[in-house]
Design a protein that fits this description.
Order of helices and strands of chain A: HHHHHEEHHEE
Shape of chain B: globular
Largest sheet of chain B: 7 strands, mixed
Helix content of chain B: 25-40%
Distance between the termini of chain B: 28 Å
Strand order of the largest sheet of chain A: 2-1-4-3
Number of strands of chain A: 4
Strand content of chain B: 15-25%
Structural class of chain A: alpha+beta
Strand content of chain A: 15-25%
Number of helices of chain A: 7
Number of helices of chain B: 23
Radius of gyration of chain A: 24 Å
Largest sheet of chain A: 4 strands, mixed
Radius of gyration of chain B: 32 Å
Oligomer: heterodimer
Distance between the termini of chain A: 54 Å
Amino acid sequence: MIKKVTQDIENFSYNTSISAFMICVNELAQSKCRNRSLLSDVIVLIAPFAPHIAEELWAALGHTDSVCDAHWPVYDEQYLVESQMQLTISFNGKARFQMQFATDVDEESIKQAVINDEKSRKYIEGNAVVKVIVVPKRIVNVVLKPQK
Amino acid sequence: MEYNFSEIEKKWQQKWIADKTYQVTENKAKEKFYVLNMFPYPSGAGLHVGHPLGYIASDIYARYKRLQGFNVLNPMGYDAYGLPAEQYAIQTGQHPAITTAANIKRYREQLDKIGFSFDWQREVRTCEPSYYKWTQWAFQKMFGSYYDNAEGKALPIEKLATYLSEYGTQGLNVAQSEELKLSAAEWNAMNEREQQQVLMNYRIAYLGETMVNWCAELGTVLANDEVVDGLSVRGGYPVVQKKMRQWCLRVSAYAQRLLDGLDQIDWTESLKETQRNWIGRSEGAEVEFKVKDSDIRFTIFTTRADTMFGVTFAVLAPESEYVQSVTTAEQRAEVNEYLAQTKKRTERERISDRRVTGVFTGSYAINPLTNKPIPIWISDYVLAGYGTGAIMAVPAHDSRDYAFAKHFNLPIIPLIEGADISEQSYDAKEGIVMNSPASPNSSEIGEIHPEKGLVLNGLTVKEAIAKTKAYVTEHRLGRVKVNYRLRDAIFSRQRYWGEPFPVYYKDGMPYMIPEDKLPLELPEITDYKPTATGEPPLGNAVKWAWDTVNETVVDKSFIDEKTIFALELNTMPGFAGSSAYYLRYMDPHNQHALVGREADEYWRNVDLYVGGTEHATGHLIYSRFWNKFLFDCGVSCMDEPFHKLVNQGMIQGRSNFVYRVISSTPNEKPIFVSSGLKDKYDVTPIHVDVNIVHNDVLDIEAFRNWRPEFKDAEFILEEGRYLCGWAIEKMSKSMFNVVNPDTIVNQYGADTLRLYEMFLGPVEQSKPWDTNGIDGCHRFLKKLWALFYDRSGAFLPTDGERRQSN
């Protein structure tokens, strides 16, 4: 949420931040969240958009300074990093299937895994593998050349 | 406890003022961030919901940067000079200063309700003497400077005068109106007046004879974007092209720097491209063409020197100085008629309009490469100010020349192998050159000039361009030249409500009022129209002469041309006051400088600038030029004024219509048919005030009360309701689709308005306003409130452990 709003503001994509706020507030309402520190962060995020209500609720949370001078919450990448990633495997630029990898796996292991995978066999058959290009976190492209 | 927005908003707005929450000072311990909105012209209509869109977007950003620990400057002010206030003054006699102040008051009230984080103690108004003092000061600086091409910057004119007295124009590499040739001896022999005239050729602010869009009805010169189809946008009066002596700014001197600077700034590529096209750099060759059976020679400019073998005619701009001399007696009547016609069109129309018009002069020019005569035509697709005002036409490889050749049945010679020119010209600068020269047995084009053996056949276009340029230079047929489409800015307006020029006239030459006597204040007048003798409105001022002994403004009747002289009657254009306002915000109360060094070096330039795209080739060119000049003078420490620029989209109106049944009998009660049934009748659609329509259902009672003529209106309903039609149009009073932000604030609160304006879509996109969707945003704030307070008013948050991460 913090990351999304930060990035949205940097990109002037305010409409999507507002959608995120709406979802967030609905979730907090459902989970009956009462946590002062969490709600404080939410108020700071909303403050640039709706400064009056933010000031009022910020003061109600016990702060004596204006919400204008609060600190923008920092997001902890650690909580955001997913342990698995999904890569699209393509042959000569045509996407064929998806594969799961651990996020910390190195490039060479990805290449080997792709070439040796059962599903790759029918695409590679009769061809020579010229090279394997890995676009981190997105695509693996296997460049093939027909064997003479 | 209910979410009571009106109480909360009022309370915090007052507290922000009391606590000076948004006042900012230079704080070296913190990093600065400068957010700026293009400041508004305070019109009489006030703000509608479209105006705050950009302000809200930048306010969110400003608040966000502050929360990140930046010292944020977010100022606001008013671009207060302008034509509407003056026209209102002409109609009503009400002084523009009074209406402007009233409009500003109204704007401020509306802005205050929306909860912006503006630092109002930095407010500027361009019509305030304390502000326009610095506009006049900058103008005087420009008058006192010339542009040195070798050093690539503006320098004091005294330096040029010294150079002229030592070397004359020998070796001079400066920006100039025309190329002068003077020896040092000639310069030194001149009297003061003559020397002043020479210097005028180089000053950055100079008096020049220029073609202007003259509107006799409005009594003023209009900018290109104020004229459409030969009529003034305001009022629809005829506009003609006329030569006038005007103040001009030598913006063209900065063309290359304006172009290069675009690479350092974070603007959208489309906006940069618009500016690049406007600046219009082209590198080409100037080639001299001799007129057949005459001593007249004229110079053409071409970027396609490689196509000289395919020239089948030449075209002069209607304003070209050669038009009269090359027109033959038989063609004179036809030419004159054509000239009269084109006078009515502005340059911009001439560029954008693809209609083919033209007239033959009766004369021929000699192509210097082929020695063959080609007819000389006149057409307004050639502009006097671009290049030399004359072109060589190569219809095979230029679309405008092609259209012209097809229209007037002139020959077309292809010069690139394989290019298909049966339907259109081949404009790409690619391919292999042929027919250059053509084989000797070709009857269509001339043989190669015996002594001048240029052969381009077989080369690529690029190679051919380079070879021809070298050839042309070597054989003294012309020279290589960089050309820009960007013109100098005309800086005089025949209006009252603008900055007066701090200038008086002695012996017909302009002189500056001493810097320490600025500002020269706008005089009071009672009649805002031009004078009966056609002078600008300031001609009506009584106390409008300069006493050089006492250094003060005195009554005109004292003018003796010895010590008391007439003051300038023109005023400055709208862009004068908006060209350096961002610098003034940094240090708005400084009485000794436009901006103090310390403040300037702290705030540097604008980090985020938000405004409309309509300023792409006006304000955003002028202010970049103005800033670059001040940078050269050491006033501004940054070469580019606006680092990142975001263009907010427009908010369009959603209009509603009712359908009046056309009746043959007049004076009958008007009958309106509901939208779904309107096709069964003969109807006239009429705009209806969107404020009496809810979800497209007309409030019939409110409609009857809306206007007296609808008092007895009758309605043909569908399913018991009157449904209105709708359309997306510009938000404007005349469409009755204006939604006032005050109404929304009163009904839902400022926070809801802010959220909803942003929720409508991406900031940069244009989108229609539809009040119907606003409830969602309001409900969201109520839900947010309910996280904190239950219905009984109990405060819910506790210090329990934080369960949920982000």
